[in-house]
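About this split. The held-out portion is used to measure sequence recovery: a designer receives only the structure tokens and must propose an amino acid at every position. Recovery is the fraction of positions where the proposal matches the reference. Here is one held-out target exactly as it appears in the evaluation file.
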């Protein structure tokens, strides 16, 4: 089927559905007259003045926003108090998990604990870089999200390692029990 056949088929299917009514006599003249009336009406006085006032107000608001942005980035931490609470919570959970990990250190798990601490130090370095980036202008919500993700990653790492240490202890206990018998 070529294009010509498909167009003919379309018109055959739509036959009798087209609007074939003619507009009333003088329709075009009335339309042109209304169009001319719109062109001839004097502008309302409030139109351009309103736009001028809005433009000045918008410019003023923009200048204030830029000024506040410049003065707000003078090195102060721009993180909100809610984030500080979240940061404190994650830091305390992290300390607790590190204490648990260090308490589990013995000759069998020493290497695992040391490797975990190395990874935690790398993640802590990444966190410090994020803190520096937070001081710079930019998308702070994305940086704050990355900081929280960093905390969660460290906590998950510690919890996974603690689970691995428990598994190692169980295997060691099972091995010791089998050797005694």
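Reference sequence for scoring:
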């Amino acid at each position: 089927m070529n294009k010509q056949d498909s167009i003919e088929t379309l018109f055959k299917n739509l036959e009798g559905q087209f609007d074939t009514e003619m507009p009333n006599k003088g329709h075009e003249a009335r339309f042109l007259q209304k169009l001319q009336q719109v062109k001839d009406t004097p502008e309302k006085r409030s139109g351009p003045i309103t736009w001028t006032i809005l433009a000045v107000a918008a410019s003023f608001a923009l200048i204030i926003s830029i000024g506040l942005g410049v003065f707000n980035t003078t090195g102060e931490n721009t993180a909100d108090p809610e984030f500080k609470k979240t940061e404190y919570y994650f830091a305390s959970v992290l300390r607790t998990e590190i204490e648990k990990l260090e308490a589990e250190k013995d000759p069998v798990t020493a290497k695992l604990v040391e490797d975990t601490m190395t990874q935690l130090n790398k993640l802590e370095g990444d966190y410090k870089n994020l803190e520096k980036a937070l001081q710079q202008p930019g998308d702070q919500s994305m940086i704050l999200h990355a900081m929280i993700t960093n905390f969660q990653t460290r906590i998950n790492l510690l919890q996974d390692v603690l689970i691995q240490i428990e598994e190692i202890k169980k295997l060691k206990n099972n091995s010791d029990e089998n050797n005694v018998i």
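Annotator remark: Residues 3 and 24 are 37 Å apart (CA to CA).
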